[in-house]
Write a structure and sequence with these properties.
Elements: H1 16-19, H2 28-33, E1 44-45, E2 51-54, E3 59-64, E4 67-68, E5 76-77
Antiparallel strand pairs: 1-2, 2-3, 3-4, 3-5
This protein binds zinc ion (ZN).
The site of zinc ion has 7 residues, from loops.
Length: 81
């Protein structure tokens, strides 16, 4: 017996993950593609997960409504830490 094995390959759920408007925190995948707009270095999530830190520039980019505000003018200096 040689059943017709499924050769259909359906490519779905490829772009959906990135465009989903669901409520979800900043994902690690998003963090990987996000860089500091000033120096283009990698950024890191704060402990409170309310901002993204660029150690290079010593700036904190706020996260509002799960959307990181990647604007140099909106960034706060990282003086406290
Ligand atoms: Zn930077």
């Amino acid at each position: 017996m040689d059943p017709y094995s499924g050769t259909l390959i359906v490519k779905e759920k490829f772009d959906n993950d990135l465009t989903m408007g669901g409520k979800m925190a900043i994902s690690s995948e998003l963090l990987e593609i996000l860089v500091c707009p000033k120096c283009k270095e990698d950024i890191q999530l704060t402990e409170k997960k309310d901002g993204l830190i660029c150690r290079h520039c010593r700036l904190i980019y706020e996260i509002r409504d799960d959307i990181p505000i990647m604007l140099i003018d909106e960034a706060r200096p990282l003086d406290d830490v």
